[in-house]
Every structure is written in C-alpha cells, then in structure tokens.
Records
---
Amino acid sequence: MSLKFSPVDVFEARHNAPGADAQAAMLRVIGVDSLEQLIAETIPPAIRLKKPLDLPAALSERAFLAKFKQIAGQNQVFKSYIGLGYHDTTMPPVIQRNILENPGWYTAYTPYQAEIAQGRLEALINYQTMVIDLTGMEIANASLLDEGTAAAEAMHMLHSQTKKKGAHQYFVSEQVLPQTIDLLRTRATPVGIELVVGDHRQIDLSGDGFFGAMVQYPAADGEVFDYKDFIAEAQKNNVFVVMAADLLALTLLTSPGELGADVCVGNSQRFGVPMGYGGPHAGFFATKDQFKRVIPGRLIGQSIDAAGNKAYRMALQTREQHIRREKATSNICTAQVLLSVLAGMFTVYHGPQRLKQFATNTHLLAQTLAAGLQKLGVEQTNAHYFDTLNLRLESAEMQQALKQEAEAARINFRFFEDVRVGVSLNQNTELSDVADILDIFAKVLGKEADQLAAELAEAELSWPTSLIRTSEYLTHPVFNTHHAEHELLRYMKQLENKDLSLAHSMIALGSCTMKLNATAEMIPVTWPEIGGLHPFAPIEQAKGYEQIFADLQTWLCEVTGFDAVSLQPNSGAQGEYAGLLAIRGYHEARGDHHRNVALIPSSAHGTNPASAVMAGMQVVVVKSSEDGNIDLADLKAQADKHAANLSCLMVTYPSTHGVYEETIIDICNMIHEYGGRVYMDGANMNAQVGLTSPAAIGADVCHLNLHKTFCIPHGGGGPGVGPIGVVAALAPYLPGHAVVPVEGRVNGAVSAAPWGSASILPISYAYISMMGGDGLTRATELAILNANYIKARLEAHYPVLYTGSHGRCAHEMILDCRHFKKAGIEVEDIAKRLMDYNFHAPTVSFPVAGTLMIEPTESESKAELDRFCDAMISIRKEISEVEAGRADAKDNLLKHAPHTAATVLAHEWTRPYTREQAVFPMEYVRANKFWPTVSRIDSAYGDRNLICSCTPIEQYVDQEEEMVQADKGPSY
C-alpha cells in the first residue's frame, strides 16, 4: 500500500464547506462544467485581478495560535490608572464562558426576526433598564458604538430638535473627555455646528446662538461638579443639556435625570468589559421621553404576540436611515449588542448592592490614597471626586521622574501637559495597590510613605448633600434574583435557548454575510495580553498591537489594491462616514470647498445618503434601470448637471441587487472625468476578495465590514468594525486622534479610541493568517458557487429578480415574492413560516420591497443548502394551496406562523391543518426542532404602547401613541 504525507490541519477546508464532490454536484445542477467557467460567466473579465493575492502562506490553527501568542506577548499589560473613560474591571468567568465565548450568543444575527430572538431582546431590555435606572432618565436605547459617538449623536439629535431659529452653537465643557471633544469637532464641522469649548462656570448661554451644552460627570480630571444650577440656567435659555456620566459613579452620585439633564451618554465598559486597547464597548444613550421619536440607534420595546403573550421586539424608527435616507438624523445602523448583553448581565449578576459596594470600595481607596499623598506633601486639587485624583507636582522634572518610576513598577498614570498627574482607581484596585502607588510617589519625593493598615477604616461620604444619591435604582427582580452563579447560569441558558443562531442552522441573509466565525479565530479575544491594555497607555507597551495593526493594514491594502488603510472606524456606517470625510478633506485641501454633491444610486443602502448628509454633502439620487443596474444615462445627466460641485459617487459592488455591473469601470471613469471621487460601499467585499478589488474597478475609497467579509461575528447586532482603504491621494485625510497620534495624521477622530475596536481585530487577523491568499480567493469562488446553486434550485419556484448577462448572480440573489400578494400572502408570512422549518429568514424587503435577499456564504455545506432549498420549495407548495383555494387565505400555515409549543399543545385545535403540518413540516425538523418561544408579534401594538424597560406592563395600559413602524435591512 502506498502512503503519502499530506497536512491534515488545513484551516481552509474547515471554513470553505463544500468539498470536491459537493462542488461537482452543484456545478451540474447549475449547468456549467467547472468552477472556473462559473466565475468567468459571473465576473466581468475587465475587472479580474491579473495576479493572485500576495499574502503570507496559510497557517494551521495550531501554528497560528502559537505565533499569535508570541505577537500578543509583546504587549505589556501594566496596571493603568489613566482613567479618561476606560478602567480595569473583571468579567465574571460565568459570563465570559457562557456568553462571550459561546457561539449561541456571538453568532446570532440582529433581532429583526423577533420571534426567534427573545433571549437577546430580554437581555437588551435589562441593559436599557440598567441605563434608565442609573442615569435617572426616562428612556434609553440598546447601545451606541462608544461614548464619543454617543455624545455626537446627542449633539445632532438636539440640533434637529431646537426651536431656536439660527442656533448653531454647541457649548462643550473643557472638562469633557478629550477624545470626545475631538470626535465632536469632527462631527460638528461638516453640518455647520460651531463648537464652543470652555469653562461651564463662566460661559454665558443667554444669547440666541446656543442650542445645546455638554458637561462631564465626574469631569475628565476627576472633579465632581454640581451641575443643577448650570442646567437650570441653560434650560431657561432654551439650551438643551447633555451629561456624559460614569455608570459606576452614579450608584453614589445624584443622577443626571434628577439634575434635569435632557440627555445622558457614556460608556458601560467598566461593567465587566475588558479595556481591550479601546474597544469594543457599549456606549449608552438615555434621554427624556419627549425624544423617543428621534432617539438614535435601536430601541427595544415590549409588545404582545398573536396569543396575547408578552413579547419583545425592536421598536420605533429602528431603521430610520433606511426609511428617511438623506433626511435621517443619524446614520447609526448597528449597536454593540454583545457588549450591551455583557454589561447588562454583569448588572444582573451583581445587583444594586454589589455595584454600590464596588463604587464604595473604589471611592474609599481613592480617599485613602489622597490622604497618603497629602502626608507626602502632594497637592490634590479636586474639591470633590469619585475615583480620580488630580495631583499637582512641583515641576516638569518631577513629573518625568514620576513617570519613569511608575513605569519601572509597571504602572501607568495620566500625565498632563502641565505639571499635573491624574490617578484613577477602579473596581480591581486593592489596598496593596494604593500602597504601591504611595511608594512610587515617596521614592520620587525622597520621603517615606506611611504603612497602611491591613484594612480600610469606615469613612463618611464627604460630598455635599446635593451630590449624594438618595433615589433607588435597579429594583426590578431581574437585578435582585440571579446572584448565585448557578442561578445566573440557568438564567443565561434560558435566554440562549430562545434564540436561533448559526449554532442551529444557516442564516442566509443577503448583504449580511453570516459565515463561519471559527473558534480558533475567537480564542485570542479573551487573552489578557489583548484585553488588558488601556487605549491611552504608552504605545511602546503595545508592540504586539503595533504588529497586528501593521500586518492587517498591509494585508487589507493587498486585498483592496489601495495604498493606505485606517482601522479606526468601529462600524460599517462609521467607515462610510470616515471615507466621505477623506474625500471632503481631499477636495478642501485643493481649494474645492464647493464640491459637496454626492451621487447615490436609488438602490443604495440607507446609510449611504445618511452618511453623506452627515459629511456635509448634498445627496442627488441616480436612477436604477429595469435590470437593477445604475442607469448610465441618468448618471451622466446628473454628473453633467452637477459637474462644478461634484464631490463623489457612492456605489456598492457587486450591486445591492447581487450583480457584477459590467459597466463599473466606465462609471468610475466618468466620475473621475468630472473631478469627483468614487466611494465604494464594501458591504459586498466578500464577493471580490482575490478575484477583483475596489482599486481594479476604479474606486478611490471603500470601507470594509470586518464583521462580514473577515469573520468578526455579528454578536446579535454588534460589534462591528468598518476600516477604510484609500488611494494615496486620500491617505492624508484618514482619521487621526487627539490623545494618541495615529500615524502622524492631524484630522479628527471618528471613533473614541485611536484604533477603534482593537481587541476584536485579532479575529480578522486570524482569518487571513489561516486562509492565506489562495484560501481567501476560494472562499469568494465558493460563495458565488453556493449562491448560484440556490438560484438554480429555487428559480423554478421563485422568480430571481436580477442576474448578470450570462444569467448568473453574484454571492447573493433576490427572490421576488410580490406576486403572492394576489393570494393574500406577504413576504413577511414566508419569513415567519421559515421559523417552523428551523431557519432564520433571509433579508426581507431590501433592497426591493416584497422580496427576499439570500446569501449563503462559502461556509455552508451542500447538505445545509439543500435543507434550506427544500424548506423554501415546501413553503412554495403551501402558498400554492392558498393560491388554488385549497387553503383559506387568512387561516393557513403561513398566516399563523410561527407555531409555538404552547400553540400546538393546547387542548383545543381548530385550525384547518394538522398540528404536525404546523411544527414538523419536514422530517429533518422532527429530529432537530427549534421552537420559537412566542407567536407572531404585533409590532403596531408595541409602538402604540411603548415599554422599553422591565417596568410591569400594568402601569402602561392606557398609553396609546402612534409611532413610526420599524423597517428591516442589512446590519452595518
């Protein structure tokens, strides 16, 4: 017998599911002889890459993890007392193991299909309730990207709501976090808002110019101010007030709501989420009830299902940018769901008593440190503080000596540009840490620090009475029940069991790319060398991250064909915005300040026009032709009409309709001839990698959804990462950062942290490392194969709306379900019926109303594709029964879907179909049944009776309001 050595640990074979035999079978069904023929018939030859990707050779999982351990080991994890919105904390292991490291949570999709997402939705209701209670506000959303972007969203929202005509000034306290001020400047300038930064104790807000003001609580240097009089004076002058607050401090401090604030924003990071060199973390946004119609981001609300049972769903203008497009007040299209769940579950586990004790311990240790430093002769300038001391030294030389001594002890403080030093304590600080800090100061001062007692003595809270919180918070039973680990474990498992994820079946969402998030890719995320770094730690302590960033930027440049990449944007929508700002900066540097027109196809994602408006551009819509492509005649007419002011074209490639437009090079050339630049939306980049590229089609900038193409999981609706690649001419205008210089750039930041959500970049780093150039290219080819296989199997049952010149789709396709309306069947009915077959629906009614947009990805096997196709064909037969009159138009399997266990186990069954038909429509479902926990949800009821916290429904039975309907679409 002949033996041959061959590597077994080949990652690509695990990621790219269809093997050789399956590929051959699928190609026969499609009607082509080879994969090469299929690709040739799908992608225009003019844009094909002329050479393979030049990337490092693929590593095995074992080899990658060993190598990455060495890279991560270059990071030095010091104890950081820098503060500025980032603090050391401890994620309870039971939460880390069972949520953060659990694919049942991190591979789930955004909860648009609420009936199979009740667990996540309940967890988000907990988070919203936690934020509402601690801030004292009336309503809160399900998170924003970070504190800085939450502050920017508050500014934009209040600017849109002011009744003061011509008011465009926004006051920001100089004591707001510096990275937030940086981001506010970035966001204010394009839309004509004038930022006025100064001392809140001296600013005069009585004029007509100010519409809003923002303060920090506690302030950036740690001072705790009583803002009650400031807020009252501002509101007397019709000036809205935003407070950025620390959630842990709010367990002891009077809440912003009680002080009268209109909006409260901040970051929930210190509720158990590692610093991660900047993210991801869940920013929070809470406000008054009067702003519920315009609150940015996602809002989770309570409604009822068809049986009258309580059920959760996303409420109000959840997809505002897809409904209002260029008239939207925000381009926010996503949230930090996984991080919100973690912070909310931290609160559920610890409850109000433990949270308050964390805060008490932190404050008492800060008091002890202040007393010890006072004995050493160090001046502490904060009259009132929570966890942060503001220390004034005698000279710059002493400050430098302190820095050297601290770093020698593996400790980081905050060093101001003058002679001050900031020391922020945290949940993990112990008495021994305080002793270590005192020893460092004593050495520099040439003195002896007093020996601390073994335990802290009791102390009084020395704040003024007006600052001490007396109101209750977190009184709901959910925060007072699950404090034993096994009780929390059972609660988390109960929630997990209510949600369908990739652990159950494929999620074939068009434009959302729910592919394999391999375990080996996820492992480094929870390493302390990755999670333990403060984002403002000295960069020489982050050599591992420096290598990760450099390698990833190089690889993404190779994939895109571009010259430079910024990793800062922490969502696809932020990437869009950053890309448009780069184009804006380019034009302005050339003196073309008047170039502000963005041409956007009518089929574009709603975030495109919303982002363009935020970047100060005028949106001009370009028509689509009947075949779904950009109407070249209209494009030419619009470009000609706006030639003098043309800034850019925003285009998605392959198109939003799932087709490689063959005229794309001509389109890009046309825009360049008029002096504009081409922005390519990277939502469909996974249909380009290795076969074509943004540079090859003629684009100048594109954002990349690392949470789509490059395997960062959706996490139930976030986190995401949206870096941008640009040609050399645009590179100088990539985002910078006010606190940590980013490659010498001077432009403003678009995210709070210098490198955005740094701690999840290792996922994409791992994916590229283990796939290599050949593996990435095959992933694109197999995504196209899988999509065309589904098309071949379903096109006799459902019309496929758009195809290329050879009848091929790209990596996704649109099934036209509009003609079923004649029989009374809506596309939503198909989506809900799929739940009975154990499947999540494809993307509903985007980009064309009444359609399903399907994307299988390369990670799904032929067997799984066949199960999905069989389900769709079976549902088509059920529709035929209605069309033929054999099933009632209103009382049928689709209209009553999904079917819960409670429904089919009820004593009385009066429906004209059997219970078995309802819940076991195919044999494979019988053995692997996923049970929706609620029947179809009444969305309109939930919007009329808005409940967005854990408050009992009985208190709201009389509330009746007509609200904006939620829409559905791809998640960025």
---
Amino acid sequence: MAKIFAKDTFAVVDLETTGTQREKGHHIIQFGCAIIKNMKVVKTYSFMINPHHEIPQSVVNLTGIHNEDVQGKDDFSVYAPKIIEILKGTVFVAHNVDFDLPFLNYELVQHGYEALTNKAIDTVELAKIAFPTLPSYKLSDLTAQLKIKHLNPHKADSDAYGTAVLLIKIIHKLESLPQATLNTLSSLSSSLIRDTSWLITTIADNLRKQKRPLGSNYMQVRNIILQKQNDQLDRHGENAHFPINDDEKKKLFKGKLHFRRAQVDLINHLHKFVNNPDKRAMVVEAPNGTGKTFSYLFAYAYQLYSGRKLVVATPTKVLQEQIIDHEIPQLLKVTKLDLTAEVVKSSSHYLDLDGFVQTIFQGTPNKNTLVLQMQILVWLTETKTGDLDELNLTNYNAPLFAQIQHPGDARVGSRFASVDFWNLARKRQEEADILVTNHAYLANHYMDTIWGQNPYLVIDEAHRFTENVISSRNDSLRFEALWGVLSYLRNLLYFSNNGVENQFNDNVQLNFLLKKLDSQILELIQCINDLQKDLYAQNKNAVNKTILANGTLELSFQGKGLFNKNSQFKQSLGKFQQKLEEVRELTNQVLFELYHEQEQVLTNTETLLSEITEQIDRLDYYSEKSYQLADILSDSQNLDQDGFILMVTNPDDPLSTNLDWLMLDAEDVLNQIYSRFDHIAFISATLTSNHNFDYAINQLALSNMSLVEYIGKSTFNIKKHLQVIAVNNMPNPDSEAYEEDIEQILINDLTNKNHVLVLMTNLEKIRTVFMAIMNSPELKDFEILAQGISGSNNRIAKRFVIAKKAIIIGADSFWEGIDFHDCGIDTVFAARLPFESPDQPEVRLRQKKLEDQGINVFEKDSLPRAVIRFRQGMGRLIRGEKDHGQYIILDPRLWSKEYGKAFLQVIPVKVKKVTKEELKELENKKK
C-alpha cells in the first residue's frame, strides 16, 4: 500500500497545565511532543516549564508534577521559540486538540508571538471512529486496550508518545476499511473538529485511485458495507446421554473442567429435578464460585433433543453476554452436544439499517450525532449481529437513536430486508436450543412464540426476579410533559414563521381543520388540568409526603386513598382519552393534507412534516399510558395491588401534578409467567434467610407449587479467601462524626488496594464523602467514582473495571445489581447495614400494605431484605477460587442492636472485631 502521508510530518503534542482555564491565570508546566515521519515516531521532546504559580494538589495528583519539579526551570518565554521551531510545517495532533492548541496559542500570544495556524487533528474523534466498540476513549484506557506501551501516563512526554502510536494505529485501521465505507466517512467528515476531516479524506482520496476489490467477508447493500451474515446455524457435535455416575463425568471433564464435588452434587440434584414429573419448581442456593451457571446448563442440556428449549433469564446484559460468550461455549466443549444458543432482547437493541441510512442523507444536526454515525459505519464492517450494545455506549439518549433503533416489525420489501438485523436475530432465536434473556424482557414477553412449546426455564440471580418484574410494570402519566407536547404542536401549526398556518394560509380545507384542531387542543389542555386538580385534591390521603432535593413534592398513595368511591377521576380520565383521540385524529388529517400540498410549494417542508409526525407519535404514547391507567382503575378489587405517587414539581400549584404507578404485589403476574414454562429452577447465591427459603418462596409466589429445595456447598474453603472485619468503635451512623471517620478511613487505609467498593445507603451522603476525598494526595493514584456524580451507573461500572486503581462510592444497585466481571475487588466497605429507606415511596407503600395485613414489617420484610443485600455486598468479593478480599463493616449497629445477630449469622467466616486505630495498623502491616 502506498505511503499516503510520506510527505507529511505529524507533531503530536500533549500539555500538562496548572488548570483548564487559561484566561484565569492557568499555565503550562510541561510540553511534550512526539514527531512522526513515514508512520514512525522519530523524535520526542519534553520541557518542564516554570509557571511561577503554585501547582494545585488536584494537578499534582493527576500528573505527579510537584512544585519542586518546576522550580528553577525556565519559564515559557524561553521555550516559546523552540516550540515554534519544532512545530513549524507540521500537522498538529492532540488527544482533545481543542484544549491543547488553544492553550498553547494563548501562551504564545501572551508572550508576543503569532498564534499557530498549522493543520490540527484530534485523536479522540478519530479513535471513536476507527475503534467504535472500545469501552473508553480516555488516552490511558486506549493505550491499555490497544497495547500501546508508554511509561508515565499523565506526563506530557509519555502521553505525547502514546498518542503518536495511537495515531499510527488509527491511520492503519482507516486504510484497511472498504473503499465505499471510506467514501461515506469522507463525505460526512467535514464537521469534525478543526482539520480532522483532512486525515480521513486524504486516505479515502488516495486509496480511491487504487483498484481494491471488496473483501470476501464483506457484502455491499446500496453504499453500505456489511459483514456477510450467516443465518444458517452451524450444527456440529453429537447427541449423548446424561453421564449418571462420577466416572462418566470425570471422563467428560478431563482436561477441560476441574471435577469438584460440590459442583457435581449441584448438577445431580438439578438433573434429578428436571426428570421428576411430579415437581414443577426448584429453589437453589449455590455459593459464589460453585460454577452454578455451568451446572444448570449441563443439567438441562441433555433434555433439549425433544425439540424443547431452555430459557435462561438473568438480571443484566453483562450476565447475558457472559453466559453466551463463556459458559455455553464451555458447555459445548465439555459435552460435545449439538446445541445452539442465542440472546433474546428487545428490537430496540438492534440497528435499523433503513432508518440509519436515511439519517445519513438528512444532514447532521450536531457533532455527537455525526461522530456516532461515522462510528456505526465502521462498526457495520465488523458486526455480525447489529446489536447496538456492541458499541459499549453508556446511554441511548442521543437523538439519533430514536431513528435508528429497530421498531420490531418484520421488514419486507425494504432495501435492507434481506440483511435486516432484527429479522435475522429472530430467525436464529427460533432455531436455537437455548435462549438467554433478561428478567424484564421475560416479564413483558412471556407469551412470545419465540420460547417454543413447553420450554424449560432457569431464573438466574432469582433473588432479584420479583423486583425486576415489578419495576418492568411500573409506569407514569406525565401531564406536564404532555402539556409541553401540545404547546409545541400548536407552535408548529400556528405560531412559528415556518409553521403550517403561515405557509399554507390559502388552503381552505387545511385552515378549516386548523381552526377546529386548535379549539380541540385547548379543550384537551383543560381536561389535563381537571385531572391534575382531581389528583392534587387528594393530598391529605397520602401515606407519605417528601420534598425532594429539586423541590418536587412527592406524595405516596394506596389505591383506595387516591381513587376513593367519590373520586371524579375515572370520569375525567374517560373524557381526557376521548379528547386526546380527537386531537390525534385531527392532527393526522392536517398531516395528510400537508403531504398533498408538499409537491406544490417551493419551501422545504420535510422537517415540518417530520416534527408533526413525531408529535403524533408522542400523543399515541400518552394515549397508551392513559389506557393502561384506566385498566388498573377498572378493577376495584385489585386496585390496592398497586401504589400511586404524585410528583408535584411546584408544591403550591395543582397544575404541576404528575402521576406514577407501581406494582406492590406481583403474585398474579408471576403465576402467569410460571404457567408458560415447565420445570423452573430459581438459582442464586443468596436465596436463604436464616438458613431457610421461606422469605424467597413468599417473594417469588411459589407457595402453591410442587417445590424442591437445595442448598449447595462451596467448592473451596471460603475461610482462605474472605476476611471480614467489623469496626466496633464508630460513632452513631446518623452523626457528622460518622461521615468524617469514613472519610479518614478511605484516605488513610487504602495504600495496598486496587479496586475498592464503598457501599452506602444514602445518595446525599455519597456526595459528601466524594467531595471530601476527591483531591486527597493519598488517593492520587485512584480514579474516584460516585453514584449520581460520575455519570450513569453503567458508565461508572465500566470506568471501574478499566482503571488500574479505582474507588466506587455507591448505594442501591451497587450492593447487588451492577456486575464487575473480569475485575477483582480487593475490599468492600459496608458503610451502613443496607436497610431500605422508608422515605422511598415504593418502600413505604409496600410496608403500609403489609401493616394493613397485620404483618410484622421489620421481621418479615425489612430485615430479610437487608440481610440478603448484605450478603450480596459480601459476595462482590469472592466470585471464584482465585479471588481474595476484605469485607469491612463500619456500622456499629452490628454490635449494639439485637438485629445485628441476623447479619452476623450469615457471615461464613469468623468476624475480626477491631477499633478504627487497629484497622489502620492492619493496613500498615501490609506495606
């Protein structure tokens, strides 16, 4: 391949500075530069620069550059001529070029020099485009993921070298792309940062001159290059009978899997259950490291030759992927069975090729969307599934996703029908023997034909199943948001300069419709107001009132309290539904007229039509929610199975009222789900409370099922892997002194740790602790992450796994819901015993329902839930035989309260009771 950049010299620059705001007196303290010629790093430069200012502690923590490192060094005025000479005639490159180049130019101008006018390109955008499936684009993460060696991350010279090698890898990757992909990337790239598009366009233009045949692993549909899809299942292997005795299993396992007595016992009990026609369900507690996933797959696998499928439901995508990518391949390797497996998730996870291609020709509304489009183009040359989760995005809030997520319809006749990712996924699922899904999807799609006839079911992490079923059924009717939709619609129709009325004022039929529609919209708004007033008027019946941090009033209700016999709400809701349907129908008629008018006007109305269509979709959404609510209200007997929450954004204004509803009792729904499946196994490492399954059986609504119970043994000696330490002289957990002690423990006692999880129960306290420790010199090597501060929980989990040293301060799902596979955790701090806050509306409503039934809420609900969550927190540490770690309990109530015994009973090792001072000494001994 010709050397495209043979005549170009790249100067890859990285600056370390005293801060990010150059206009506020922040200065450069190190200039690093790596020179690339002929795709090789030929020279590096590093200048330490005296800023004549104190270096902030946060910068010292990040860079390792101290005040004494720059004292006595020359200031920027000495280095400016040298820097100008080094960069003369080069292409300026940086990882976040819009920071480094303006900062450098500002210093140059301040010292009387001209600003640099070099071509400038950005390796952040280029890395995202070239490597679209990486989980992070921070330089330190990229160099680790791409195996780029540089010695001192966050030092300018080392970072410049690392960025230079990264640029070379990016160029090689772009050069390897199919020409049609490069052409489209080039056509989209003009809005990239500064001159970044020049690099892509230069590669595309040069390679276009060569005749490059499309690789045999690709296919082209229109101008989109895709990996060739294989929709034929690769059947291989042999059918076999379940190995009954130990010798048969040892023969199968030899050289592939260690024979462990506890795991084999688990397999045998599961196999016996699956073959017992008199039993429908089994509850299993299998300790971490038992190999429970392989065990249940092995036990069921030999039953799948009768055409019946095994459905496995897990709580998270991470677990789904682990089962598909690791556990099932291991099963097939050991057994040599001829089975196939597929993930089942909603269509919105898959790329809609028709929708995506349409967005490319619509113009680009913003930079993030542009980069995402370019990432997807490159990803399409790599993906065999079209599953958007492969892109490792932490949220799907970008506007582009509304257009490119697959709606789930069967594509027939479209240009991409033959390669439609969702249709191909459904075909593979229909033919597969094992289907792996998540709890929420199963709860909402248990009647789907995809599961086949009389399928088996395993609920993995079963202690979370009821909670996930409930949350999947919770919903809301946000009246303020609907009001906003109607206001925006009126603006599109009547008030905007490019609106319908202003553009088409001579169309008699259209204007008749518009006049009629406006009065209907105003009447609908009045209906909304009536509903809001009806709800707000019941505030005295709330079982709980809370003012949230943002000022919203949160009112929790039982069904009978909000919708009593005298309530006019149901009547008002019917009127609202009728009026909403009339507005939607009239708006559709307006849209129909506009499509007829479109060809006769010169102005471009595509955007207007698209926006009106979008508002109709939103009206459909609110109509659907209103009918869901009407169904709940129509069954007065079951009304108290649900809780209701009013969210009043302005506590003094009834017209700021919104309604949420949530399921309090899932028994009926759970029984409906169970009726669809056969021989259901409920498996978790934490299903027992007080050494029995009573709480789990009640929660999972299994009391009436013919049930098998089994508590497995650990496959290794947990005492050699887990150390539990409890501090016995901490102050009251509700005191300021308690938070201060936690902060000091984190600052002083983590010297030998790499990955630390701090589990709390209050989001506000998380913020306080985070702010106190974030700039501590003692923690300078740690990436400190906090729930509610450092992005989504998904993003926090990914950063934690990637970082060499990291601390998470979290609550809620970090006790049990977020997965950290492939990341050993050294220490888990249980800052407080994990009782749920009674201020949470769902907790208060559930407890009120139990109180009304005469049930001891603390004994039967609060304590068992807390104990299971406590065990889950401990289970974060030891996932397998290679893991070792400390579980440090800081809550003094473990010793001072009678209920502390319930927590002590579930700890599988002897608890080491220490003082705060002794905890510090333990750490010092390890140094």
---
Amino acid sequence: MTSEHSHQDDQYDPATTVEAVTNAAQDIGEFIRSQRLSAKVSLRQLAERAGVSNPYLSQIERGLRKPSADVLSQIAKGLRVSAEVLYVRAGILEARPASPVRDAFLADSSISERQKQMLLEIYDSFRRENARDGAEQFASTADDARVANEVIDGLGTGPASSAP
C-alpha cells in the first residue's frame, strides 16, 4: 500500500501544474508592476524600454502571460533592477542567500548584467571553496580535541589519581 500511495503522489496532475504556472505568472507580474510603480514609470514607458508591446507587458503584469528569460532581462534593464531578482521571482533561478557583497554587485549600474553574473559566480565559487576548507580544518581541530580529551581522561585514570 505504501508503494501505491507514493506512486499516486508522483503522478502528473495537469490541474496542479497549470495552477503553479498561473501562480508564478501572477507573482512575477505583480512584482514587475510594483517595481514599475515605485520607479514611477508608466506601462507604456517600460514597454518601450523593454522592447515589448504595451498589451503584452500589461498581460504579464496581470498574470495572463509568463515572460521568457529574455523578456525578463529586458524588463529588468527597463526597471534598472537585477535580472537575477526577476529570474528568482519567476522561478527560473533559485534564490541565493543574502549577502552585502552580492547586493553591491547587483546594484552597480556601471557593469552589465552578464558581468554581474560572472562576478557572482566567481564570488560564490570562492565562498564554497572557503567553506569546504573551513569544514576540513574544523574536522581536523575536532580530531585534535578528541585526542586531547582521551589523553586527559587517560591521565585521570592512572595510578596518580588512585591516591587518597
């Protein structure tokens, strides 16, 4: 029975998939609209900056269309926000942990989106390497501490400790 239950959970459910896509489209649309309004940019201005039609951008904002990565990139440029932010909101990329360094890269308008992505990849690779080295060093330190505790415990059980 357990295998039947897990098999049922793995079955493709078109209604659930359609609902998930619709929710993602609405979420990114609402986010784009809120960013546009806070930037005080009209729908027409953003459509022009992004190189998409006014009706298409309106459909994106209302959650009727889910934009491609290319369109999101153009919208990001039009809004002067990071494409990565829009990709995460649209479910194209996984969210990365917050970091002041990452935020500084993303906020820098003097470098291109591609340059930002390259810097972030290099930065993340350094962080992973340092985390791995730190874990190895911690394991080595933990081993040293364990050995030291064994020596100390061994000293406590020797003949000197049995004296009154």
---
Amino acid sequence: MARSPTRSTRRSLPARLFLLLVKLAVGFVLLSALWVLAYRFINPPLTFTMAGDLLAGRGATRDWMSLDEIDRDIVRGVIAAEDSKFCSHRGFDWDAISDAARRNASGGRIRGGSTISQQTAKNAFLWQGGGYARKGLEAWFTFLAERLWGKRRIMEVYLNVAETGIGTYGVNAGAQRYFGHDAAAMTRTEAARLAAVLPLPKGREAIAPQGFTRRYGNSIAARIGVVARDGLDGCVYEGTVAPRDRTPPPSRKPQSLPGDDVETATPPPPPPPAEVLDSLPAAPAEPPSPAPDAAPPAPVVEPAEPEDEPPQPDPEPQANTDAG
C-alpha cells in the first residue's frame, strides 16, 4: 500500500526549490567574480557586441593597445565626454542617474546616466540594449570591476573594447580607421572627435564630421583642457608615469571610412541654414547672353489684283414710239 505524502514531505518541495535557487545564486556570484578577476590579467578576447557584428557579416576589427602607449588626450577626451567624475565615484554617478531619470520622465529624447565603469561592464560582459534584467547585471559587474580591477584597468579595457565604428573596436583601431595612424599620438582635435563618436558609433563619423558631431567634438576639445587643468584623470595614472605628449605622425589615408553603411535610427539634426549655405560651392558664372537678333523684316504683302468684272450685257434697243 502506497504511503500518502506527509506534511513534512509536502513542505520539502518548496524547501528544495529554495535551496536550488540559493545554489544557483551562489554559483553565479562565484563564477561572475572569477570571470571579472580573470579579465584583470587577461584581455577580453571577444564580446557579445563583437560576436553580433561577426554574425551580421560586418567583421570585428580591434588592435589592443596598452594604456601606457595610448595618448593621454584620448583618456582626457572620454572623461570629458562620458564621465567627468570618473576618478571620484565608485562606479555609479548618482547625481547623473537621478538627473537623467528626471529628464526622461519629462519626455523627449532619452538620456542615460551611465559612467565609464558601467559602460565597461556592459561592453566586456553583457550585450547592448536596455531592459531591467541587463541593467541589473550591469550594476553587479560594475561593482565587481570597481573592486577587483581599479580605475586604471577599467579605463584600459574601456578604451580597447568600446565600439568606435561599424565593426571597429577600441580607440587604436578607430584612430587607424579615421586618421590613418595609431592612438599612441593624437592631436586634441582627433581625440575629441573620436570621443564624440562613442555614444553612437554606428551613426557618427570622426573624419570630416558634420552637424552635431562636429559641434560636440569641438566642445569636448575645449573640455580636454579642463580635465588636464583640474587633474580629473589623475586616478588613471596613479602610481605610474603618465605617457608624455607625442607629436602625431602625418595622417595617412584612412583604412576604411563609413559611407552608405552608416547605421542610425535617429539621424542627427540638420545643420543651421547658414552652415548649409557656407558649405555649398559657389555657383559658376553664367556666360553673357547673346544680343537678341534683329527682328526679321515684315513680309511684304503685295496688294491683290482686282478681279475682272464680268461684261455687262448690251442694253436692248428701245422701240420708237414716235409716229412717222
């Protein structure tokens, strides 16, 4: 005779499920911590975003460069553009997050408040796109990176895995693509333009940028000086010797330039009419119009000859009525 399940047996099923969840959570924590710790010493070989480009047939070009070799202006440029408090926060800029939340709640264009640490965690360990699940994982990996890597390694990984163009990853590959030389020596303008591409790498160009990208790059170039003056990149070079400023080599022909393959769901706003008029080529001078020909002489109309009148019949002789 089969034994009916006791109350303790019935309660054991939820307990077993709870125990399973606890084991999964502990396993995820341990594995994710080991994953992040491994990337402290090993450069990430592939990211989910790179894999997506490879599957889409766009390729994935990256040329890893040590932070000791990367021009300091590009470090200052991404801090000026993406995260001015990079050296003062522990992964999250709560003021920027709350400000972005207020602006997004008021409607209009959606803005993010992600720090460089958060973007590095997303690029190295996760996928692109939104969603609360991905945001939650991003926060966890950001926490681990801040504790296990430190600011210097976060910046180095960020500058080598961030997307800088269609199928192009890292500032070194981006510099070679747009400017024809590596990222060891860059002008301030080049560094600013490359930093301006980072928020929308598939829809912006660092070479001969137009409209918003050009104005944004000019703004970043001005703020690079503020970062240098205030030492906002000091944590990146703490305990090491910062690279000296180098003269960039002459620009060569870029390896590949975005053209018709630039992807953007929201194109940048059109430039002001004054910029459009300034960029238009001068109209060619019109040749002088020939003098109008003399009016043709009026046709001579000869007067029509009068038609011959029909002959009139002779009058009939009248009878002589006089008596003889």
